[in-house]
Design brief:
This protein is an all-beta fold and about 120 residues long. It has no helices and 10 strands.
Length: about 120
C-alpha cells in the first residue's frame, strides 16, 4: 500500500502543507509520509491526541501523543528537524490527532489526522 504523501514547502513566506492544508482522513494501519519540497527545507512535526466532545468524558492524561504504531515515539512526540518522516497509524478506529508543522520561525497549526 502506498503512503499518503504530504508535501511541505514555503511560498511567499507562508508555510504550505499538502495540497489541501495537510488534513488527513485515514484508516487504521494506513501509512503517511511528510516530505520536504526542497533539500534545504527542514521541518519539525509535533503530535497531540484530541478528546472529542461526544458526550463521553475522556481522561486527558490517558490520551496518546503519538498516532503511529511505527516508528516508536520520540521524546515528546516531536519529530525533526528533518526533510522526511513516515509512519504507520495505530490500528484503532475513532482517534483524532492534531499536529503542528514548523519550519524556522513559521508554524502551521492545527492540522488534523482522523483515523476512521
Amino acid at each position: 500500500m502506498a503512503a499518503t504523501k504530504i508535501k511541505i514547502d514555503i511560498e511567499r513566506n507562508a508555510l504550505i502543507c499538502g495540497a489541501n492544508g495537510g488534513n488527513a482522513y485515514l484508516a487504521p494501519g494506513d501509512k503517511v509520509k511528510w516530505v520536504s519540497a526542497r533539500r534545504d527545507l527542514r521541518f519539525t512535526l509535533e503530535f497531540f491526541q484530541l478528546g472529542l466532545e461526544n458526550g463521553k468524558e475522556v481522561e486527558v492524561a490517558a490520551l496518546h501523543g503519538w498516532p503511529f504504531q511505527d516508528p516508536p515515539e520520540p521524546r515528546g512526540a516531536v519529530v525533526g528537524p528533518t526533510d522526511e518522516f513516515k509512519g504507520t497509524l495505530l490500528n484503532e478506529n475513532g482517534l483524532v490527532f492534531k499536529y503542528y508543522v514548523t519550519v524556522g520561525n513559521l508554524r502551521l497549526d492545527p492540522i488534523l489526522i482522523v483515523v476512521r
